[in-house]
Amino acid sequence: MRRTRVLPLAALLLCTPALTGTAPASAAADPGPAGPLRILLTNDDGYNAPGIRMLFQRLTAAGHDVTIVAPLTNQSGAGTKLMSGSTLKVEHPEPRVWAVDGTPGDSVSFGLAAVFADRAPDLVVSGANFGPNVAALATHSGTVGGAIAALERGVPAIAVSTGELAVPVPEQILNAMRPTNDFTVKLIERLRAQARNGRLLPEGVGLNVNHPVVGADGKGTARGASVTTQDPQPGLTAEYTDSGDGTWKVGVSLVRAPDQKGGDVEAVSADKVSVAPISPDWNTGAADFAKVAALLGGLRP
After folding, report:
1. Quick one: which of 17, 37, 99, 229 could link to 72 by a disulfide (CB 3.0–4.6 Å)?
2. Residue 298 and residue 132: Cα distance in Å, rounded?
3. Closest CA to 222 of 210, 230, 234, 233
4. Average pLDDT over residues 221-230
């Protein structure tokens, strides 16, 4: 997701309902899709990862018609990559589950063309990812890449991640996926209530959702939700050491910079859910930011 300059958050929200307030009734002028939403659920951690399975159960319990079409193996960091081979291995290990031997983008492409060949899903959800996709991590994220693949094909999409740059222990992240999933269900219902012409999101606009890990056990509720921009800080850096035999040792470390005001890192660090607009042409700006802020007015974790 390219970093873009947008108006400050407070200035944009002067013309939109506050996230902690109540959305006006006029915002829900058009009904959303009738009946259960048909959702294609993907990720980059693999079709059998805890995050996608937990979200599958939560979305199904909320009454949605969910089908997993996700990578066969872990594809973390795959970004928007699409395979270029002439064949693609696909497994169908159980009902409503397809495992694609490729990237998240390949999974979404196959899902839309084959699994949902009769009619496109109402929504593609990518996640819940094990770990954050804020700042530069979002640029290279396979979770975000899966959402971008859907947006490129005109299908509304949300990327969902759990975690923050101050890395918690795995158990905390797993516990925090439950409030993450609860928020995701609320978010989808909000989008459904605010849908225009039966469409859950404006054309070409998706959402990158990052839920913090709150509390010592990760089970806490976020302090609110903010529409954000992508923080420009790099997040991770790599150092290379020549082994002298043609190979190089790679060391990856976290690099922190001052959090950008109104950015995704600032929100998650303050125990708030970050909801950042994303676009398949990398040009999301102030107009899309304002649209998303209006859609999410009043939504709370």
Report:
1. 99
2. 24
3. 210
4. 94
